[in-house]
Amino acid sequence: MPQEVTKQYKEIMSKYLESQSEEDLYVGQQFSRRFIEKDIAPEDVISIHKSALFELHPNLRKQVWDSLDFLIEMMIHYGLTMREHQSLVRKQEAIQMEMNVATKVQDTLLKTVEPDAEGLDVGWISQPAHQMNGDYIYFLNQENASSVAVADVIGKGIPAALCMSMIKFGMDGLQNENSSPDNVLGIINRIVEKSVDDSMFISMFYGKYNSITSTFSYASAGHEPALHFSSGTSAFTELDARGLLLGVKKEAIYDEHSVVLEEGDFVVMMTDGVTESRTENGFIEMSAIKSLLAEKKDESAQEIADYVYSELSRMQDYQLSDDFTIVIFKKKTV
């Protein structure tokens, strides 16, 4: 411990003990800054106080000195705990800064334009469970065709945001390319396989609606199956397709399937934040989700999406356990 600091502290304490004035107390309070400047630990401050007190009043009772020794030991552990806490706070602040940057990346780079295809009604909602959204929606608009990619990036922070940005720029390059679902997933898969760390996992469902033939074609990269609601039968059918997660294998093959939409039919594309919604009693059954969709089958696509989100959120006491994303393509009724 710096001898200069010890000497100055003794002088200040001596003056205060003699006068007990507000002025001398204020001098002591200001002097405490020196302890911080010299990086003196709390237990060492008490040792300085004990030494100064012993020189000024050496005949104090033994219990006084023992109590100060006890306080020194207490402050040693207090100092260690405080430093650990401060280190944790700094780490949390760094993580929060990273999340803020990642969120800004999402907000500025990942915007997409909703399709405006003849005869197609589109509704969607994507709500993060926390600050940053791990789900991603991208709409691709071409002549007589509207497509959508619904992706779920398993990862957080800047790496996840950069991964989404890479997918977005890959999708941007498909404006004049063959946009069939199997081809699109093949292209994005090769981009991800080449560029993304092995710790990142990405699932994606890609659907394309042809406004001339009313055909909805689709392919999946390890994603949740979509649901097709038939207005004629009032029944749901799962639209499942085989395919590995993006980036797992460079030459992965993605199966493509299609279904013709009749007036009033709609296709529901979701992430697992919808299909695996849970309450305190367990997972919400798919049958309950289908019932919610069916209740609003005659409404617009956006009203259906909003209703499902509102009801599932209410069932979870407005505490989402995962990012929630749903996209609906509905064939308009003439």
Automatic annotation (TrEMBL):
Gene3D superfamilies listed in its UniProt record: KaiA/RbsU domain (1.10.1240.30), PPM-type phosphatase domain (3.60.40.10)
Top-level taxon of the source organism: Bacteria
Domain PPM-type phosphatase positions: 121-331
InterPro entries xref list: Bact_Sigma-Reg (IPR052016), KaiA/RbsU_helical_domain_sf (IPR017944), PPM-type-like_dom_sf (IPR036457), PPM-type_phosphatase-like_dom (IPR001932), PSer_Pase_RsbU_N (IPR014787)
Xref: Pfam families: RsbU_N, SpoIIE
The keyword Glycoprotein is assigned to this record: no
UniProt entry keywords in alphabetical sequence: Hydrolase
PANTHER family registered for this protein in UniProt: PHOSPHOSERINE PHOSPHATASE RSBU, STAGE II SPORULATION PROTEIN E-RELATED
Protein name: PP2C family protein-serine/threonine phosphatase
